[in-house]
Design a protein that fits this description.
The protein is α/β, with parallel strands linked by helices and 184 residues long. The protein is built from 5 helices and 8 strands, in the order βαβααββαβαβββ. The chain has a single domain, classed as Dihydrofolate Reductase, subunit A (3-Layer(aba) Sandwich), CATH 3.40.430.10. It has an 8-stranded mixed β-sheet with strand order 4-3-2-5-1-6-8-7. Strand 7 and strand 8 form a beta hairpin.
């Protein structure tokens, strides 16, 4: 069965939205190597509507981070949205998920292929984790307090037990923490 993963840049105060606004100089070569390794395993990406719209406006014409641009522009992307239509998806290799996100991802997990990555959508990551479909969630905690922004887990999220799968501290003080949902 294929693995579903997600990796989010995080601030110490739990902000995951717009990491370009708080990452500053904390991104280092160790994180670059880690993300490069992830890209070699992932052959399918699931995005939320908001993430799709932001990324589709940026990555096809990105003049920076060409390794990630080459990856994300080429990989098959499936978009979870209740408001977009397939005709709205103009970014290369993008397909609207027809029906239920959880059922779609469960079906993807049963097919042949590499790792499925949930990217560009906190609500997608949250939904898949809480549904038990996320195999690994990696939080890359930068040594910074963002002070504002959306968090992955909102008030009212049910208490959910996790197991720490791996941890690593980079030279610039980033904590790379990978969790799995604990089977109780």
């Amino acid at each position: 069965m294929r693995k579903v993963t997600a990796g989010l840049f995080y601030s110490v105060d739990g902000v995951a939205e717009a990491p370009d606004q708080f990452q500053f100089d904390s991104f280092d070569d160790e994180l670059g190597a880690l993300l490069g390794g992830v890209m070699t395993e992932v052959d399918t990406v699931v995005l939320g509507r908001r993430g799709y719209q932001e990324w589709a406006d940026f990555w096809p014409n990105a003049g920076q981070d060409m390794d990630f641009a080459g990856f994300i522009n080429a990989v098959p992307k499936f978009v979870a949205s209740n408001t977009l239509k397939q005709a709205d998806l103009t970014w290369n290799n993008s397909t609207l998920i027809d029906g239920d996100l959880e059922g779609f991802v469960l079906d993807l997990k049963q097919r042949q292929g590499g790792t499925i990555a949930a990217m560009g959508g906190m609500s997608v990551v949250r939904q898949l984790l809480l549904a038990g479909l996320m195999d690994e969630l990696t939080l890359i905690v930068h040594p910074v307090i963002a002070g504002k922004g959306r968090r992955l887990f909102e008030d009212g999220t049910p208490t959910t037990r996790l197991t720490l799968v791996s941890s690593r501290i980079t030279g610039k003080g980033n904590a790379v923490l990978t969790y799995a949902k604990r089977a109780d």
